[in-house]
Amino acid sequence: MTSIPYKIYLPEEEMPKYWYNVKAVMKELPPPFIHPGTMKPCTADDLRPIFCDELIEQELNNTDEYIEIPEEVREYYRMYRPSPLVRAYNLEKLLDTPAEIYFKFEGTNTSGSHKLNSAAAQVYYAKKQGLSSLTTETGAGQWGTALSMACAFYNIPLTVYMVKVSAEQKPYRKAVIETYGGKVVPSPSDTTEIGRKILAENPGTGGSLGCAISEAIETSVKTENCRYVLGSVLDHVLLHQSVIGEETKLACDKYGIEPEMIIGCVGGGSNFGGLVAPFMGDKIRGKNNIEFIGVEPASCPSLTRGKYAFDFGDTGKTTPLIKMYTLGSGFIPSPNHAGGLRYHGMSGIVSKLYNDRYMTARAVEQSKVFEAATAFARCEGILPAPESAHALRVAMDEALKCKETGQKKTILFGLTGTGYFDMAAYMSYNAGTMTDYIPTDADLEKGFATLPKVDL
Amino acid sequence: MTSIPYKIYLPEEEMPKYWYNVKAVMKELPPPFIHPGTMKPCTADDLRPIFCDELIEQELNNTDEYIEIPEEVREYYRMYRPSPLVRAYNLEKLLDTPAEIYFKFEGTNTSGSHKLNSAAAQVYYAKKQGLSSLTTETGAGQWGTALSMACAFYNIPLTVYMVKVSAEQKPYRKAVIETYGGKVVPSPSDTTEIGRKILAENPGTGGSLGCAISEAIETSVKTENCRYVLGSVLDHVLLHQSVIGEETKLACDKYGIEPEMIIGCVGGGSNFGGLVAPFMGDKIRGKNNIEFIGVEPASCPSLTRGKYAFDFGDTGKTTPLIKMYTLGSGFIPSPNHAGGLRYHGMSGIVSKLYNDRYMTARAVEQSKVFEAATAFARCEGILPAPESAHALRVAMDEALKCKETGQKKTILFGLTGTGYFDMAAYMSYNAGTMTDYIPTDADLEKGFATLPKVDL
Q1: Which residue of chain B is at minimal alpha-carbon distance from A379?
Q2: Which residues in chain B (351-390) have CB-CB distances under 8 A to chain A?
Q3: Which stretches make up the Tryptophan synthase beta chain-like PALP domain (chains A, B) (predicted)?
């Protein structure tokens, strides 16, 4: 036995009391949101009809490096946090690598992912503001589950627009949301104007995340004392997810672990942004030289093949414009794509950090991702979510490189969740029927054609 | 904040090094197994064609109170143990009870239940003995999953006879087993003599656990260097599960928690037997006066309405006879029964302890069980397995009694697992279509009629 245990659990009293706001340290900030009507930077007042007041304040806070986690939210966190930082001894053995591999495991709560970290915070602030109900969208279903859990706890009614193909393919995920009292509406639906419009233009469509966002926003704006909440992309979501990075850093410091490489999957960017936040702050200040790698699916390659441009967050083109790496809000990944990470754009913070070369990105194909996931499940016991297995894939690739070079690198990756509601994808992999898809340049051009013309 | 944290995680170095063998302390032992051919007590040699050698030794060990957990098994345990002992602060608040409620949560591993504790041990011993393959049966699928995980780790081929109705209703549970490399055969099947016989006699049957056991045993006996492994009922399984009780007791001692009531669900009895083992040892020695309650479904009430008699462990009547509380090996619970805990019999140890009044038992109806499960999920975040929610139901009932009486009782229950693969049952509860079923005396008589005539 080495002195590093399999699982490092911080005691509850050492749980972080502050979220980490990396924007306070960034040398250049991401540009502000642009109001789609005025084409001027959004003010807090512009955002107020859609979002909770305190979340807007956090969204626009570029100066405070540490923002206190309210005691009530920490109380919620105590139900499932701190999450373990795990030394992947068995994976190291399997790969026969001199590298040390660690993963921060966010899948030990019922939502099955890191999403609960922001859901708990957002619903707390909604309750504090005295809101009567909330709306949101969900794709793979992790965010919808997390939010319905938090809404059940704080007793706030929730409507979840769930991408129709996902609601059909994952009836059990839908059932979990309903068990927690959330109302699930498959999207596009006839309950909103934008939904009816999309249905008219694309009869039989399975929907998309961007379309579900449009419907959720429309409903929130039209409903008295209701607000919309989002599970990724926005700065305040990354802020809440920084609890992952804070805990990871505390555990590393406590046990003398010095990661040389931190790897996370990126869809909207909240898990990655949260995991790396405090380490990134140190890197910007010149205190470390960690290599940060965001991993995305080859079928939805916003960082590696997208454009850094102002774009809408949704298909309906109703949200403020965010400068981000994007494939265009009209881009819809191939239906053979199994896991999440199918968002056309990317967090503004992550986009800026990528553009300014504080991090790199890689795109991986899904068959290789499930190969890694299966090997990991068999040796480490945990069945990963397909999303998380993207990061795992690159961690394994890097550990195998170390085997070749003999380097004893310390690799850390985020295992964001479990795959218990993704078994249809595993079945397709097990049956050998899973295929890969890489969009052609022409495919991407179609998406780019939906980018707004913005002259700033 | 009180001084008891939400979740007590023992550090890995404080993990138990010994399993606890309650038989060494029992004033009267359960009678030995009876060989169905000779009608004499089974010897180790009688059992050798079916079971691994070291497991037989453990099965027949009535003298050693502590049996060492091999370092290799502890190594496996470290991947997911120690499991947390949780203070259910939010449930206490919901119930507005003066009682203190704790639960030992075994659902944080991918098998989703406590079953992995015995699977890891059994497969380790199989590997040590140099066996080429293993067979088993699974009902709800938790044991099959756990065993396939352990078999993947130790690299031993596994065939799982899965109750046909369960394999059909839970394709994703089947997929998890297959992801770990287990071969799933829906039972009854045409791959065994007993399966063909049952199919001929009951065309279209959905199968039963007792029938799947018969098929798994037949295959193991007919296959070179293969053995059968069982996930509950037997003494060595309860022994392995005592790691739950050992950890619980260590955590209680460390934090000065003195449970006055320990509650566990009982199907075959392994979780309950494991959870209570070391506390029961102390009770037998007069060192505590804890009330132990086993909770079973009203639709399969082996303790509360069964007979204490010698019976077969399987429908095919091929196993040794065990003296146990049983409904008769021909008893099949109503198809509307949603959760596990559908075994006709009960662990010999638990049966003896129950018969000798060291514990009590209660039967609960499933609609009340799912009501408790849903309330718990909403306030404590964890979506329980239906099985586990039986224990939860009684813990809640007892806490509500304390509210009436004002008693500040310390109640501890076993939350054996998560319900992520039981969403069809939750859907039926959510939709209001779940019904209860209590067998009539006439129904039970049909089962009792299948009891063997044994004159001892």
Answers
A1: B153
A2: 374, 377-383
A3: 80-417
A432 touches chain B (CB under 8 A): no
Report yes or no: A157 at the B interface, CB cutoff 8 Å: no
The answer to whether residue A420 neighbours chain B at the CB level (below 8 Å) is yes
Strand intervals (E) in B214-266? 226-228, 261-265
Residue count of chain A, please give it: 456
Instruction: Give pTM, 2 decimals.
Output: 0.96
Q: How far apart are CA B367 and CA B364, in angstroms?
A: 9
Beta-carbon separation of B179 and A374 below 8 A: yes
A316 to chain B nearest CA, in Å? Answer: 32
Instruction: Calculate the CA A61 to chain-centre distance.
Output: 20
Q: Which of residues 59-88 of A touch B (CB under 8 A)?
A: 78-80
Please state, in angstroms and rounded to a whole number, the distance separating the CA atoms of residues A79 and B5.
10
CB-nearest partner of B153 from A79, A378, A426: A378
A261-265 and B7-8 beta bridge pairing: unpaired
**What ipTM describes this predicted complex?**
0.95
- Extract the tokens encoding A310: 């102002």
Shortest distance, CA B423 to any CA of chain A (angstroms)? 6
Q: What domains, with CATH codes, occur in chain A? A: 7-14+70-112+234-448 (3.40.50.1100), 116-230 (3.40.50.1100)
Per-residue pLDDT tens listing for chain B (456 residues): 348 999 999 999 999 999 999 999 999 999 999 998 888 999 999 999 999 999 999 999 999 999 999 999 999 999 999 999 999 999 999 999 999 999 999 999 999 999 999 999 999 999 999 999 999 999 889 999 999 999 999 999 999 999 998 898 889 999 999 999 999 999 999 999 999 999 999 888 888 888 899 999 999 999 999 999 999 999 999 999 999 999 999 999 999 999 999 999 999 999 999 999 999 999 999 999 999 999 999 999 999 999 999 999 988 888 999 999 999 998 887 877 777 788 899 999 999 999 999 999 999 999 999 999 999 999 999 999 999 999 999 999 999 999 999 999 999 999 999 999 999 999 999 999 999 999 999 999 999 999 998 766
Closest CB to B381 among A11, A109, A172: A109
